[in-house]
Structures are given as structure tokens and as C-alpha cells.
Specification:
The protein is an alpha/beta fold. 38% of the residues lie in helices and 25% in strands. The chain is built from 17 helices and 16 strands. The strands form four sheets. A six-stranded mixed beta sheet has the order 6-7-8-3-9-10, sandwiched between helices. The chain has a four-stranded antiparallel beta sheet with strand order 2-1-4-5, covered by helices on one side. Strands 11-12-13 form a three-stranded mixed beta sheet. Helix 5 packs across helix 7. Bound molecules: adenosine-5'-diphosphate and magnesium ion.
């Protein structure tokens, strides 16, 4: 747990002074990723640098695992905190292996231990140790260098990782890859991570919680959902964007709201008359046709009426089948593209799992998102 208690930092340069952080209080639970979000100059980097004592507090207290960092030697503290910065900060004249080994060497690890640790870390960030360990940073792409930066920060297996816009300088495609890889790693490692970003999409994706800053003040500290659904004020609402309703849909899974009752399933080989009767009794205007457990299409009473044998002959293909893990945003996007207001959902084994309708998406949105607020 990291606790910030009335943290203030004032930079004095000559006669002018800048309040970089103004009376900040919040705490970060162990194993969580907290994203510090906000426009340039709002104090994000400063908060990281106070946390690992690269800068000193003006007033206030920071505690890590209940211990005030004031009383901990800076170098010692930093050996237990991984730090990734945007420009990677790799030493250009050291090999990849030597870059990763900086902290382990400071800690006096022996050669074998360092070598095997480097290997594990390179694999972890998906760089083949044999081909990369002896290269120099300039021989790697930006994304690869960033991975080395993450490996280096993890070298001594610190409890805490501070990441300052770690993927900020990477192109969007590789950025997304790195984000996904990091989330996978984090699911295993469960570090306490402070992740700086100025990008709301990245913050929503990466953060268990988001701390939104403006001009040195902490404006809102909440889960991504709450930040999107209940922005504290105009600044937050503007920062998260006019399309925040869509962003909310991006974090709700199909699984959370789909209709599992499967009350409208029609069997593939069933006689048309049975299917019509079934749909009539249930007052259904469409039925999802399954072959065994696999959704294969849909039928409407109109389709069926013109056929006289089995359901199979009246089948219309399902435009898209989506997965339980997809977001409502994905589902909505498919609906718009395919002009369909109902989609079939399958599980990871491609078995029918339920349906989702445009109506249910709107309902979910209203539930998460009070009307007066839109
Ligand atoms: N060493 C410094 N000396 C003077 N002012 C600084 C120093 N570091 C940061 N600042 C000022 O503090 C404010 C916050 O900076 P910073 O934490 O780097 O913002 P962010 O990382 O959110 O972009 C800015 O106004 C910046 O100019
Ligand atoms: Mg910064």
C-alpha cells in the first residue's frame, strides 16, 4: 500500500515558485494499477519522483507499507522500486543484458544469478535472450527498447513499479501490443503499479483506478467506470470526452448483460410447423437456430411461412457471432455495421451462450448512466 497524505511540492526557481502538487491525499492498494492521468504539467511525473525520492517533499507524508519514506535512504528505496520512463533511459553504451542488470549488480547478486534473471526477464517481455542480450539499445526498435525498460524495472523483483508514460512514444499498433503484454504480465506478477498517462483510453484500459489531476490538484480518484459514469465536474467530463457513453460500453462485457435464457432457440432440423408453433406461442419475432449447440442462423415467422419442410431451409445466416468476453462497444459496432439489432453470443468453445439486443445495450447504458447526465 502506498499512502499520500497532504502531499505538496513547490518548485522554487529564482523569485518564482510553482506549486506542482497541491495537498494531494489518496492511497493505492497493493497489487493495483493506478493511472495518474491529466494534461501535461499537472504534476504526474513529480508525484512519481517524490515517491522514489528523486525529489523531496515540500510538505506532507508518503508512506509505503506503512513506513514513512522520509526515514528511508533514497538509494535503498529506489532499489526496491522499479522505474520506467518514457525515453526508456537505457544506457546507450551498455548491452541489453548489462542494462537490465544494473540494480541486481548494485545489490551484489552473483554472475550466474544475474544471467539467469536476465534470461527470464527477456523471455517475459518476449525478446529472445540469445539474439538480444548482447545488442545495444540503438540496435532495437522503440517498442523493443521499451520492453527492455520494463524488464530492467522488474530486474530485482520490486514490489512497486513506477511507469512514466512508458508507451507514450510508441506507434499506436505497437503501443496496444505493449499494453496488452503488460496487462498479461501484471495479471501474474500483481505488482503495485503507478502508471502515468495523458491518454484517457490508455487509462481506462490499464487502470484499476484512475487519479485525475489538473494543475497540481487531484480532481477525482475512482475506478474507470465511475470516472466515466459520474465525472466529478466539468473538467473531468471534458477530459474523458463527449463520447464517454461509448467508453462506458467499452468496459462492460457482453457476458455481464446478455440474455442467457435462450428462450428463442429453434432446432436446425425441426419441422417448420413445430418452429412456427413454438414462435407463435412465445410471441417471438425471431428465433436463433442452433445445430446442436452451435448457432447457425436465425429465422422469422415470415421466413418460415414460405417454406414447408424443415427450419434448415428457411435459415438466414447470423451476421456476426460475438464472444462473451467482447465489450458492449464491440457488440454495438457489429450491430451498426450489419444492421441487426440482435446478435448471438458464443463462449470460447463456440457454443451458443446467449443473445444480446440493441435494447439491452441501451438499458445497460441507462442503468450505468443516469439520463440527466448525458
Ligand atoms: N525541477 C523543476 N523545477 C521547476 N519546476 C518544475 C520542475 N519539475 C517540474 N516542474 C513544474 O511542475 C509542474 C508539474 O510538472 P510535471 O510533474 O513534470 O508534470 P507532468 O508530468 O504532469 O507533465 C510543471 O509546471 C513543471 O513545469
Ligand atoms: Mg511527465
Amino acid at each position: 500500500m502506498i499512502e499520500y497524505d497532504s502531499v505538496t511540492k513547490v518548485f522554487k526557481t529564482g523569485k518564482t515558485s510553482v506549486v506542482a502538487l497541491d495537498n494531494i491525499s489518496f492511497s493505492i492498494d497493493q497489487g493495483n494499477v493506478v493511472v495518474l492521468l491529466g494534461p501535461s504539467g499537472c504534476g504526474k511525473t513529480t508525484l512519481l519522483r517524490l515517491t522514489n525520492k528523486l525529489d523531496s517533499l515540500t510538505t506532507g507524508t508518503i508512506r509505503i507499507s506503512g513506513k514513512e519514506i522520509r526515514g528511508i535512504d533514497g538509494t535503498k528505496l529506489r532499489q526496491g522500486i522499479g522505474y520506467v520512463i518514457q525515453e526508456t533511459g537505457l544506457f546507450p553504451h551498455k548491452t541489453i543484458e548489462d542494462n537490465i542488470a544494473v540494480v541486481p549488480r548494485l545489490l551484489g547478486w552473483d554472475k550466474d544469478k544475474i544471467r539467469s534473471r536476465t534470461e527470464v526477464l527477456l523471455r517475459m517481455v518476449r525478446l529472445d535472450p540469445e539474439s538480444y542480450r548482447h545488442r545495444f539499445p540503438a540496435e532495437l526498435s522503440g517498442g523493443q527498447q521499451q520492453r527492455v525498460g520494463v524488464a530492467r524495472a522488474l530486474a530485482a523483483d520490486p514490489e512497486i513499479l513506477l511507469m512514466d508514460e512508458p508507451f507514450g512514444a510508441i506507434d499506436p499498433i505497437n503501443r496496444e501490443k505493449l499494453q496488452n503484454e503488460f496487462l498479461k504480465l501484471q495479471a501474474e506478477l500483481k505488482k503495485t503499479v503507478i502508471f502515468v498517462s495523458h491518454d484517457i483510453h490508455e487509462a481506462i484500459k490499464m487502470g484499476d483506478k484512475i487519479a485525475l489531476f489538473d494543475k497540481g490538484k487531484l480532481i477525482q480518484y475512482d475506478t474507470p467506470e465511475t470516472i466515466l459514469i459520474k465525472p466529478e465536474n466539468k473538467f473531468v467530463a471534458n477530459f474523458v470526452g463527449a463520447d464517454r457513453a461509448l467508453k462506458v460500453l467499452g468496459i462492460i462485457r457482453v457476458n455481464d448483460i446478455m440474455n442467457r435464457s435462450a428462450g428463442n432457440l429453434v432446432q436446425y432440423p425441426a419441422p417448420v410447423s413445430d418452429a412456427l408453433k413454438f414462435m407463435d406461442e412465445k410471441n417471438l419475432n425471431y428465433g436463433i437456430v442452433v445445430n446442436g449447440t452451435t448457432p447457425v442462423g436465425y429465422v422469422t415467422p415470415e421466413h418460415l411461412r414460405h417454406k414447408n419442410k424443415i427450419v434448415k431451409d428457411a435459415l438466414e445466416p447470423l451476421p456476426v457471432v460475438i464472444k462473451t468476453n467482447d465489450s458492449l462497444r464491440d457488440a454495438l459496432s457489429y450491430m451498426l455495421m450489419h444492421n441487426h439489432t440482435t446478435l448471438a453470443i458464443v463462449d470460447d468453445n463456440e457454443n451458443f451462450a446467449g443473445t444480446i439486443t440493441l435494447n439491452s445495450i441501451q438499458k445497460a447504458l441507462r442503468k450505468h448512466y443516469p439520463e440527466h447526465d448525458q
